[in-house]
Automatic annotation (TrEMBL):
Organism: Sphingobium algorifonticola
Protein name, entry field: ATP phosphoribosyltransferase
Subcellular compartments: Cytoplasm
Quaternary organization: Heteromultimer composed of HisG and HisZ subunits.
Occurrences of domain ATP phosphoribosyltransferase catalytic (ranges): 56-215
The enzyme's E.C. designation: 2.4.2.17
Amino acid sequence: MSQPLILAIPKGRILDEALPLLARVGIEPEADFHDGKSRALRFATNQPDVSIIRVRAFDVATFVAHGAAQIGIVGSDVVEEFDYSELYAPVDLNIGHCRLSVAEPDGLATGNDAASNAMLSHVRVATKYPHLTRKHYEAQGIQAECVKLNGAMELAPSLGLSLRIVDLVSSGATLRANGLVETSVIMQISARLIVNRAAFKMRSAELAPLVEAFRRAVGVRDAA
Ligand code: PRP
């Protein structure tokens, strides 16, 4: 018998929406998964041929791209930031909706429209998304110097690390609480099912029905 399929899912806010979706697919993690005190990272499920790992969002893409996990759930922000050729993203799961935006201090905001940016040749930006940030500014003929942070980007402007940040925005509450305003939206985001391309070929008998089950589960929710 082959090894169980490894399904990588992200910690954080996608997880709450992913669990009901997994239930509709017929995958229920073992009880320990829901134990907040558990330090376990890998979990059995009700399906003997599927295990779950719970990792940081960016690491979901890394595990799946390298084939250490065969399938995963992650935001389209992560898929686009890494642009891994080994990843196949066949299903928009219609959960985890948010946007990737540029923000600046309220009052100091120069605006990020083409007219304001026409004056600029260079910007410094704190972000977890250097690739998408550079691409966004390059399209306007501006060179972006990215300061890579892994969280709490919103602190950067008030502490003089950078005037601008590029980060995820959902309700906008974090920006408001830190005196920032959104000046442009780079992309709308939702969670995607991702699959390792090589695994999809080699284990298609297991993976193709699973991908179809996710597709159906998304459709069921849409129709509800
Ligand atoms: C994300 C993001 C923002 C915040 C935006 O962080 O980085 O800080 O959510 O959400 P809002 O617009 O609803 O306030 P998250 O809490 O997921 O944690 P992270 O900083 O570890 O990414």
